[in-house]
Design a protein that fits this description.
- The protein has helices spanning 3-21, 80-90, 101-109, 144-153, 176-195; strands at 31-38, 41-46, 60-63, 94-98, 114-117, 132-135, 137-138, 161-164, 168-173.
- It contains five helices and nine strands.
- It has a single domain, classed as Class II aldolase/adducin N-terminal domain (L-fuculose-1-phosphate Aldolase), CATH 3.40.225.10.
- The strands form two sheets. Strands 3-2-1-4-9-8-7 form a seven-stranded mixed beta sheet.
- Helix content is 34%, strand content 22%.
- By secondary structure, the chain is of the alpha+beta class.
- The model has no long low-confidence stretch (mean pLDDT 97).
- β1 (31-38) and β2 form a beta hairpin.
- Bound molecules: ligand L4RZE5RM and zinc ion.
- The ligand CSCCC(=O)C(=O)COP(=O)(O)O binds at residues 27-31, 48-49, 77-79, 97.
- This is Methylthioribulose-1-phosphate dehydratase.
- GO terms for molecular function: methylthioribulose 1-phosphate dehydratase activity.
- Belongs to the aldolase class II family. MtnB subfamily.
- It catalyses: 5-(methylsulfanyl)-D-ribulose 1-phosphate = 5-methylsulfanyl-2,3-dioxopentyl phosphate + H2O.
């Protein structure tokens, strides 16, 4: 493992520990990735099936745009193919996926997309407080190609998030820190929407 990949692994493990502390990576849920090369697209992604709150710098796997690895030992996240698709289509440098509850409840209530408006926290999502932002919802699938096609069909460059019904949320950004800030603000926005009954 090169020093660069190890550094990516350290950063991914630290982010996972934060999300776990927030209760957004229960059990072995969730996965994170960073782009380490654009041509050909190569991502460092968290390993599959481990408690994401206990990862070390070694628990990272290099994958291509389809989520395939040549690593003979480590198994990449089962959702690595969707990370690759999101990074390819959006140009993001980091993709984060967690199983926070509010995004899943919101997707259940508004399966055609969750509309957010007139909230200061929209600024933390890269938008104006008076913008109307619709976060897309796609049905869950075990097939990352199906999920990737559904994501791409509804992709808008100004909405860096995807809700996967009965599953979780994906958010992306230039790097892990920007992706985290967007995710934290989006989770707040979705919790507000769900807890206020979505009146506005
Ligand atoms: C209870 S976790 C189910 C799988 C999942 O949705 C997830 O986010 C974790 O999968 P991974 O292969 O990345 O461990
Ligand atoms: Zn998941």
């Amino acid at each position: 493992m090169t020093a660069d990949v190890r550094a990516a692994g350290e950063a991914l493990a630290a982010e996972c520990a934060r999300y776990t502390a927030m209760g957004w990576m229960r059990g072995t849920s969730g996965n994170l990735s960073v782009v380490v090369d654009r041509d050909p697209l190569t991502l460092a992604v968290t390993v599959s099936g481990k408690d994401k709150g206990e990862l070390t710098a070694d628990d990272v796997v290099l994958v291509d745009a389809r989520g395939t690895t040549e690593d003979p030992v480590r198994v990449p996240s089962a959702e690595a193919g969707l990370h690759g698709r999101i990074a390819a289509v959006s140009g993001a440098g980091a993709v984060v996926h967690v199983h926070a509850l509010a995004p899943v409840v919101a997707a259940e209530r508004w399966p055609g997309g969750v509309e957010l408006r007139d909230l200061e926290m929209l600024k933390g999502f890269g938008r104006r407080a008076d913008d109307v932002v619709t976060v897309p919802v796609v049905p869950n699938s075990q097939d990352m190609g199906v999920l990737g096609d559904a994501f791409e069909a509804g992709f808008r460059a100004d909405v860096p998030a995807l809700l996967v019904a009965r599953h979780g949320v994906y958010v992306w950004g230039d790097d892990l820190l920007r992706a985290r800030h967007r995710l934290e603000c989006l989770e707040w926005l979705l919790r507000f929407k769900v807890e206020t009954g979505g009146v506005r």
